User: What shape does this take?
Amino acid sequence: IKKIGVSNLTQPRYKTNEKDENQKDVYQDICYPVTKEFREKLYGTILEMHQQEKEKRLQEGRPLNRRERMQTEMQEQEEKEEKEKTVSIACSITDSFCPYTAVTLINREMSSLLYDSLITLDNTFAPEKSLAEDIKTEGKTVTVTLKSVTFSDGSYLSADDVVYCAEKAMDSSTKYKDNLEDVTSVSAASSTKVVFSFSKADPYFENQLDFPIYKKNSDKKSSSDNIEIPPIGCGMYIINDDKTELIANPQYHGGEPEVKTIKLINTPDSDALQHNLEVGNITCYYSDLSGCEL
Assistant: This one.
């Protein structure tokens, strides 16, 4: 309550016959908001009435008192800070949201928000384990042990999911195909272990395990209107049904993100991208300077 400037919210009281240590009258509360629900309802009603009275005074052109001015300034500051937390990114709603079939660069790069990988690369390009609990390299074989992680639908990640996505990556036209070009086979040794075999020993093969992972066969689903449904991932966000927002994944193994919602701005071509950047509809945009693809 103090946060919005109402620092003297008190209950109805009556004067008793008692005196305090300074010989001042002692007052006793008439109302006792002993439960959380009652307190929330009571305080909420008082604050609502206070806000209504303030708005009425503004409409009538009456000046606000000092406390009301402070409250208004604090509310405006909170709204400004909340607005600054809003993030908007570009996407193409007509393109696929599957990382292995998406055509546009903006949708491909957005996949890192929806789908996690076995490892990620830090700022020095050193691998950091994400979905992988352990990675062991022996000659031409790499064995990956998976963490106990759930997808956004609550089902558990398994080795079959990783094998499925590795094969999708190797059969795609993405950068992941090039990264895995030396892989001769990938198989599930158990529900939590995946074995990669490759044609030649590579001490840095672990760095290539950053391909996106989603639930097996979830990329084959479509709506009643025959519109592709994005695959089920275990990343930081999930996409809403009308593809206008990314919402924080409540099942995410890495904890709750600071930004709970990311707005998606439909950007079908480079002209739309330039316009959205100029008017400030898009907060940030990834650009690969090695090419000119949107």
User: Anything to note?
Assistant: Confidence is low (pLDDT under 50) at residues 1-9, 289-294. The two ends are 47 Å apart (CA to CA).
